[in-house]
Amino acid sequence: MTTSTPDTRTSGTATHREIRQQPASWQRTAADLAERRADLDAFLRPVLATEGLRIVLTGAGTSAFVGDIAAETLRRHLRRRVDPVATTDLVADPTGALGEGGPVLLVSFARSGNSPESVAATRVVDDFSSSAAHLVITCDAEGDLAVEHAANPRSFVLTMPPETNDTGFAMTSSFSSMLLAALLTFLPQQADAVPALVAAVETLLDQEARIASLAEGTERVVYLGSGALSGLAQESALKMLELTAGQVVAFHDSPLGFRHGPKALVDPSTLVVVYGSANAYTAHYDADILRELRENGTVRVVSVGGQDADELAFPLDAVADLDDGFRAVAAIAFAQQLALATSVRLGCTPDNPFPGGTVNRVVQGVTIHDHRGEAVGR
Predict the structure, then answer these.
(1) pTM here?
(2) ∠318-167-182 over CA atoms, to 5°?
(3) pLDDT in tens, 352-361
């Protein structure tokens, strides 16, 4: 294992601090949720008892991927309909997303809640479902989304610890804390998973230099994952694109889907990362793609969280028995650290990779149009 000192160019950044604060933030998130449990349950109990209720998890970008991951786990445990639908889809095509009507619990994820689509999506859902209820999970109590729903009797605002309102460009502790909060909101009986998640992420944080060494010679990265880990793969690829300002191209797919064309992009400058599933059946497909790519001999292949003894393996033994949605909370630290290390290697400024403003921390330039055809604001 590489034990050299981590690159000092990363340690002074907000992004580095926000990656490393995650264990403490998760503990505060769980404690805050426990403190508000009675009020949260009083809000959710009648909503969840509504016949024909559809739970929709929404957000934009990284916040949308929170929903993609959580939906897989919640469907499995709740045995009810849970659909991830990005705010960008809800706003752009509300009829396609909500045309069936019926009662909806919209769970909105947002770091700041100031992206134009955040509030717009909740208003669109209210137009399509007269009995819509809203659970807002956000890192900014003063953001537009939280303020919009603070006094609404059909809404409940759950605010993450203030430090998770990441000041760096890329969402890091905000992502993992909102994901943990979403899972514990609906699965409170699994609150005892938090110490295991903390132990698992600390093993990754302790390997910062080893993870950083993978950035050398890497010009493109592929993240692969199945089920809940598919959303994790997508978020991981986005972190690389964001923090390197697109200089390192990153892709995502599933281990099975990768063979159907995307595998063509693999060359000696490609790093492939396979997120290993805790599901024994699904893990067979992870092992198959690892073996196939390693036999190729020209590409570096890393496994994260799998039962793999290769020298490029990063096992997460502390969370080996948890559902993949929970394991994603810890596993994302691998991709966050790799993206940060690659960013500084390329001479980027991780806290502001786009100094010219071509891409912004909070999305700008979006006009929200009334779905009846009239522009109503920016």
Answers:
(1) 0.93
(2) 45
(3) 877 766 555 5
